[in-house]
Design a protein that fits this description.
heterodimer; A: about 400 residues; alpha+beta; 16 helices; about 20% strand; B: about 230 residues; alpha/beta; Rossmann fold; six-stranded mixed beta sheet; four-stranded antiparallel beta sheet; 7 helices
């Protein structure tokens, strides 16, 4: 029975090809729009995460317990060997790790001063794991040949502008050292970077690990071991393994915990994408409902005959719903075809939003947003499209099912 | 044995402002194997009577039994099932399902009756051959003439092996030659298979072929003569 109802429903789509084409097109445009929003919003979100994770944060951070909430020199890992050993034991999951000294401080030039985040790093490890070395726009990244007479520092272009310095000029870094003393040193700017995030350009300064340790008086100590993984999917497993290995004396945080604001922003992206999709589809349902109502009205007599022959109201209801479901499926296929064509035509290379480059920088993304598909949200988009099409046909289907045979047959 | 019994049936159609009495106390019995025409001018109530016998509508007063069942006591679902199993319809405007082929149209009611696929296909093909449409099995209604479509409608009506076939003005949209051929077909089905036919008509051709003629006038049986 269902097969025949489906057959009637499918063939009925082609009774009025023009009208069916209009409904299918409206669903297709809605689906294409939803997929477009999905892939580019997620592409933007991914770039934001990548910018944050790759530029500075890393995927996992190991600290002495309490450091994240109170990043003081007193919570330095004086003997960081156990943390490094635990990371090395995760060899299969880990792409690399970088020892760091982190402290808040002040950067001063002859003309200005600015609050900064000082990061002391192993230049060789850091340059393979984070993107800062590739973001140098003037000079070079840390060479690893910093000496007491020529201490190297790399700063962001925004900070350079604020301090009025360039490559070759000197700045003084000041921070809280051990024993309540203030540590300070003069550093020569050897490189200037520019990252998508203006905030990072304004606040981060990179110095050699040993120079930072000397300045703070924490000989051999580390604030953080930053870890990057081979596969993003291993994040939770790696965190769990490290936390078990290191125990309560340490805190092991993922980037999600380190940057809750980023997580909230991505959740907002997801929610706003879903809301926009829902609005697009909801608007389309009115047109679909109206058209299906017309189609049912035109076939009133036919439905009356079907009832006269003994078809139950439920079967008529299902037949109209099947027709809507087929139209939805055709619309979805059409929408995916539109996107495929656009993708091949150039959208796959990314959406160039250079005119909004400044605003995008606030989010930490590049001017070219590359599309990224998230299977879950993609499936939700398609399901939403199909559900809306079927929902739009509920009232027409109910009308068809409620027809009285004698009245319906009398209609011309 | 009577297939249909109509006892004191009245039917009033009410709208917001007007009440129209279509039937005013009709008594009628249709026996098995009859070939009966219900005739009368427009507005005499013949289509209304046919609709009531066909369980497409319910009387305002009175009682109707079809195949031994009092239709006034049945739910909408039971009426639907009664139509499916016991009554075949042939309408003036053919009313085939336009997106189904002749074979699929004839199979449709058997599908509702859950007749197995092989049996359904065999019966549909046999019946379509019987009505002279062996070469039109896979044609859609739009690919057939009016007379051919009406033959498919007759085939559909008898495929479910109903107790009776109700034909409402079946020749109204056909030319005289085609109409005559259709009537002869239905007459032969009646004589050879004993299928009961009840027509609503004002077509002389139908009235002449009927073995019983019930005349309606202003919602009442004016005459009831055997031929």
């Amino acid at each position: 029975m269902e097969g025949t109802l489906a057959r009637i429903a499918w063939r009925s789509i082609f009774r009025n090809r023009r009208r069916s084409a209009v409904i299918v097109a409206s669903v297709a445009v809605g689906v294409a729009g939803a997929i477009f929003m999905n892939v580019f919003m997620w592409g933007m979100a991914e770039q934001m995460v990548a910018s944050t994770v790759n530029s500075f944060l890393g995927e996992i951070q190991i600290h002495r317990n309490g450091f994240a909430d109170n990043p003081v020199v007193g919570l330095t890992m004086d003997a960081p060997r156990p943390a490094i050993a635990a990371v090395e034991r995760l060899d299969g999951m880990v792409r690399g790790y970088a020892p760091r000294v982190l402290t808040r401080g002040l950067a001063e030039s002859a003309t200005n001063a600015s609050g900064v985040q000082i990061i002391g790093v192993d230049a060789a490890r850091e340059s393979t794991l984070t993107s800062v070395a590739r973001r140098i726009v003037d000079g070079t990244f840390l060479t690893g040949r910093s000496s007491p007479r020529r201490k190297e520092v790399v700063i962001g272009d925004a900070l350079a502008g604020k301090l009025g310095v360039g490559v070759g000029r000197k700045i003084v870094l000041v921070a809280q050292a051990t024993g309540g003393e203030m540590g300070s040193d003069a550093f020569r700017v050897i490189g200037i970077f520019r990252m998508p995030s203006e905030d990072l350009n304004r606040t981060l300064v990179w110095v050699d690990l040993a120079d930072a340790q000397n300045m703070l008086g924490i000989d051999g100590g580390l604030s953080e071991v930053m870890v990057m993984l081979r596969h993003e999917g291993d994040l939770t497993a790696a965190q769990d393994a490290l936390a078990r290995a290191l125990g309560p004396a340490y805190e092991v945080r993922t980037w999600r915990e380190a940057s809750k604001a980023m997580v909230v922003l991505i959740q907002l992206f997801d929610v706003s994408t879903l809301i926009m999709m829902a609005i697009v589809f909801f608007a389309a349902t009115f047109g679909i409902a109206n058209t299906m109502l017309m189609a049912v009205f035109e076939r009133t007599r036919e439905f009356g005959i079907l009832r006269a022959l003994g078809t139950r109201p439920g079967a008529l209801f299902r037949m109209v719903i099947y027709e809507a479901a087929f139209i939805g499926a055709l619309g979805i296929a059409g929408g995916m075809l539109i996107i495929a064509i656009l993708y091949v035509a150039g959208l796959g290379k990314g959406l160039d939003l250079s005119i909004f480059a400044q605003s995008l920088a606030l989010f930490g993304t590049d001017a070219v947003i590359r599309p990224r598909l998230r299977p879950g949200l993609f499936a939700v988009s398609l399901a939403m499209a199909e559900a809306m099409t079927v929902l739009a046909s509920m009232w027409p289907a109910l009308r068809a099912a409620r027809l009285q045979p004698a009245d319906a047959i009398r209609r011309q | 044995m009577n297939i249909v019994e109509v006892i004191g049936v009245e039917k009033v159609y009410r709208t917001d402002h007007v009440a129209t009495q279509a039937l005013r106390g009709v008594d009628l019995a249709i026996g098995a194997g009859e070939f009966t025409a219900i005739a009368g001018p427009s507005g005499s109530g013949k289509t209304t009577l046919l609709n009531l016998i066909g369980c497409l509508d319910l009387p305002t007063a009175g009682r109707i039994t079809v195949a031994g069942r009092d239709v006034g006591q049945l739910s909408a679902a039971e009426l639907s099932d009664l139509r499916r199993d016991r009554i075949g319809f042939v309408f003036q405007a053919y009313n085939l399902i336009p997106v189904l082929t002749a074979r699929e149209n004839v199979e449709f009611v058997m599908l509702l009756q859950r007749v197995p696929e092989k049996e359904r296909a065999g019966r549909a093909e046999a019946i379509l051959r019987e009505v002279g449409l062996a070469d039109y099995l896979d044609r859609r209604p739009t690919e057939m003439s009016g007379g051919q479509q009406q033959r498919v409608a007759v085939a559909r009506a008898i495929a479910s092996e109903p107790a009776l076939v109700l034909a409402d003005e079946p020749t109204a949209n056909l030319d005289s030659t085609t109409g005559a051929a259709l009537l002869d077909l239905m007459r032969s089905l009646n004589e050879e298979k004993g299928i009961t036919f009840v027509f609503s008509t004002h077509d002389r051709m139908v009235m002449d072929r009927a073995r019983r003629l019930v005349s309606l006038h202003d919602g009442r049986v004016a005459a009831d003569e055997a031929r």
